[in-house]
Design a protein that fits this description.
Length: about 200
C-alpha cells in the first residue's frame, strides 16, 4: 500500500473555481519541482513533510467528515502515485478533485481536474486537454496576455477558465480592472477568479 508524504489534511471550504463555497476535505501532499516565486504554500516544498499516511488512513479520516469530495493538492500532487489514493476515496463514496500545474503526464482518473498551468514551467498536453477548469494566476496585465497567448488554444470546451490575481496583488485596482476588461472582451469560458477561503479566514 502506498504511503504519502503529507503537509496537512483538513476539512474546510473550497475557495476557488466552480466548486467555491462547497465543503471539501483537503489533502496537501509534500513536494513541488515547479517552485513559483509567489507560491503561497512554500511549506509544501521546502523543509520536509509533517507526516506520512497510507491511502486508507487518509480516506478513513476524510470519511468521518460530511464532505462530498476531497481535493488532492500540494505542492504538485501528481509527482506521487495518486491512483491508489483516488481509489481509496472512491471506495468510501467520496469524489476526488485534483489540483495540478500539469507538470507530469496525466496517468490518473479523477472526478474533476483543476489545472493551473504556469508561464515559467512546462505543462503536459494531456492535462491541458483533460482539465475541467483552468486557473491562470496573474501578477500583472502583461501576464494576462501571456497566458492567453500560451494556452488560448485549450480554452474551448472548458467549464470555466479563471483569471485570478496572485494574492499579494488582490487589492491592485489596475490589475483587477484588467482582469474584468479581459473577461468582458472575450466572454465565456473566461471568468474573474478569487480566493474565497482567504476572505473567510478559512484554512
Ligand atoms: S506549482 Fe503550486 S505548489 Fe508548486 S510552487 Fe507553484 S504555486 Fe506553489
Amino acid at each position: 500500500m502506498a504511503v504519502y508524504p503529507i503537509v496537512e489534511t483538513f476539512y474546510s471550504i473550497q475557495g476557488e473555481g466552480l466548486y467555491a463555497g462547497a465543503g471539501a476535505y483537503f489533502v496537501r501532499l509534500f513536494g513541488c519541482p515547479v517552485k513559483c516565486p509567489w507560491c503561497d504554500t512554500k511549506n509544501s516544498w521546502t523543509g520536509k513533510p509533517n507526516l506520512s499516511l497510507s491511502s486508507d488512513e487518509i480516506a478513513n479520516e476524510a470519511s468521518l467528515s460530511s464532505c462530498d469530495f476531497a481535493v488532492i493538492t500540494g505542492g504538485e500532487p501528481t509527482i506521487h502515485p495518486l491512483q491508489e489514493l483516488i481509489d481509496a476515496f472512491h471506495e468510501r463514496g467520496i469524489k476526488v478533485h485534483i489540483e495540478t500545474s500539469g507538470y507530469m503526464p496525466k496517468n490518473i482518473e479523477a472526478d474533476w481536474i483543476t489545472l493551473s498551468p504556469k508561464l515559467h514551467s512546462h505543462t503536459h498536453e494531456s492535462y491541458l486537454e483533460a482539465a475541467d477548469e483552468l486557473k491562470f494566476i496573474v501578477s500583472s496585465e502583461d501576464e494576462i496576455s501571456l497566458y492567453l497567448e500560451k494556452f488560448g488554444g485549450y480554452l474551448r470546451g472548458k467549464k470555466a477558465v479563471f483569471i485570478t490575481p496572485e494574492f499579494s496583488k488582490s487589492r491592485d485596482a489596475e490589475l483587477l480592472n484588467s482582469i474584468c476588461e479581459t473577461v468582458k472582451l472575450y466572454g465565456s469560458p473566461l471568468r474573474a477568479g478569487w480566493q474565497l477561503h482567504k476572505c473567510f479566514g478559512a484554512i
